[in-house]
Amino acid sequence: MSSWKDNLRTIDPYVPGEQPNIEGMIKLNTNENPYPPSPAVEKAMKEFDLDSLRLYPDPNSELLINAIAKRYEVNNNQVFVGVGSDDVLAIAFMTFFNSNKPILFPDITYSFYDVWAELFNIPYERPALDDNFNVRTEDYYKENGGVVIANPNAPTGIKQSEDMLRDIIEHNRDVVVIIDEAYVDFSGESALSLTKEYDNVLIVQTYSKSRSLAGMRIGYAMGNPELIKAMNDVRFSYNSYPMTRLSVAIGAAAIEDEEYFQKTNKMIIDTREWTKKKLTELGFSYGDSMTNFIFATHRSVNANEIFTKLREKKIFVRHFNSPRIDNYLRISIGTQEEMEKLIDELSIIVGGR
Amino acid sequence: MSSWKDNLRTIDPYVPGEQPNIEGMIKLNTNENPYPPSPAVEKAMKEFDLDSLRLYPDPNSELLINAIAKRYEVNNNQVFVGVGSDDVLAIAFMTFFNSNKPILFPDITYSFYDVWAELFNIPYERPALDDNFNVRTEDYYKENGGVVIANPNAPTGIKQSEDMLRDIIEHNRDVVVIIDEAYVDFSGESALSLTKEYDNVLIVQTYSKSRSLAGMRIGYAMGNPELIKAMNDVRFSYNSYPMTRLSVAIGAAAIEDEEYFQKTNKMIIDTREWTKKKLTELGFSYGDSMTNFIFATHRSVNANEIFTKLREKKIFVRHFNSPRIDNYLRISIGTQEEMEKLIDELSIIVGGR
Lengths: 353, 353
Prior knowledge:
homodimer, about 350 residues, alpha/beta, 7-stranded mixed sheet, 3-stranded antiparallel sheet, 11 helices, about 10% strand, globular
């Protein structure tokens, strides 16, 4: 009878990670920040005129863009904002990857890249990381429609050197190279300076991890003004007012509080290093995580067994049932206290094995 | 040299209406609600735990979806939410309009439909409204890839009868028919009941007009669960967490305050009817507006002249420089006091002409 179903865009739906909400749980499964947002957020909210919500937001999110531009010492026309870095990346894919050549990204990386490629009918290839989960730069020398590198990478936590990035970019001057830096604030240097040398490099970052604002959905991209303008043209053709008035106010206030940002990032990094040592003592191994999570495998106990037993103790970590990584767990860094509880439970689970 | 520009999605950027921010202005150009959001919003904000912003939102926006479903007496799986109705409509276009046949919508209607069609490479045709800006239903009998009807229509303000909609739907059982009801709360009945009879009808509404929350970017669609699931599959393949935690909390609280909603809508409708009478006395004519704006033309004074003179008085209305409607002004309904000032200025501008 009715055939409207023939015209559907059919797609294997992406299934977001579970968001359990259980009394007393320790949530280490979605790489959220264990610390609350900057106190500047509370202040901004107190000063916010709720009556103004009757009005549309500024389509250009100027207040937020100015604050980000100031923080990174770039011009306003070098910053693009979106509803989380997922929105920013999706628009970048839509904007920049319109050739018939495949775009390239690693076989093990953020699980949304292939979903966007499918959604927007972009051909893609996934060169395999080496056995230590490092990028083989020569895989990115061939002709392609664009390159996406998460750095540090997820879920491995491993960061490639700027020299490696530069090598990939030098071999790809005629396509856009996206560097997804969702976790960069836990790793030292950003590759932002490369955008000054190369007009085809786009850096993408997010408020969801290091700025403790996953719930506000704020992501941003930085690059040369031509890249940003092209993304804005697509953005304004999709939705003129993507950011809520509260996202703009909160995002601007949060990024100005550099001191809190540095303090909480340091706490997370310290706890990460402590956790690494303890995991080693328990027989785990892992790449050198430069993120707010550790991607670890145990010498004798199966990842799925550990995952299930932790879950019974209301400790949630992430397990990917995918080739090459199905014996790993991705463990977000919580507070020091949470990680101590995790280590206690792990030592019971793997004890002596 | 570099050819990354060859792969750009090039598109005539949509230019959003201006958002002036001038002391003492009367803003009647973007159909915002002159009244603040429900007091329930302030209460929800006071109770909101800002520390929870460190966590991702519920990907299913359950709290918000439940509140909308309850208000409209439908099931949860019949409601889709997005970042304003622009996001909802864009996803509906992406989801449902994947044939090679043109989709159909009127020549004079919401100016985003053709922009989305261009963005997603959807062919389209725009049958002309008749001279009174009414839809000619027979234009929608031919084979097509989908139908979009704004009802009441923008920028005309005119509402088509349910019989006319039913006629169009009956001739289009094999494509999705979207009824964009952004302004329906100022017009009496919604066509929501048609979704019970027809599995291919999608109703789209928004918080931006009748619920005074343009700044929070909340839109929703209602229809049979298969339509909603198809949209969610696309949604989750684009962005897993589209709605901020604050949007969910505020949206749920606002829709529960039915009394405030009825009261402010009635005030706007009363002011609209008062304004219509005054405009007639001044020599304006207009279709029978069923929205929170009036689309009016003057018997002797050019629209652009009126637009410019009002602007000098810090009164902002909307003028579209488009064929057939370039001698009209779209005037949003403000408070009674604002409209009295508008009428005073208009009587000076058109006085005796």
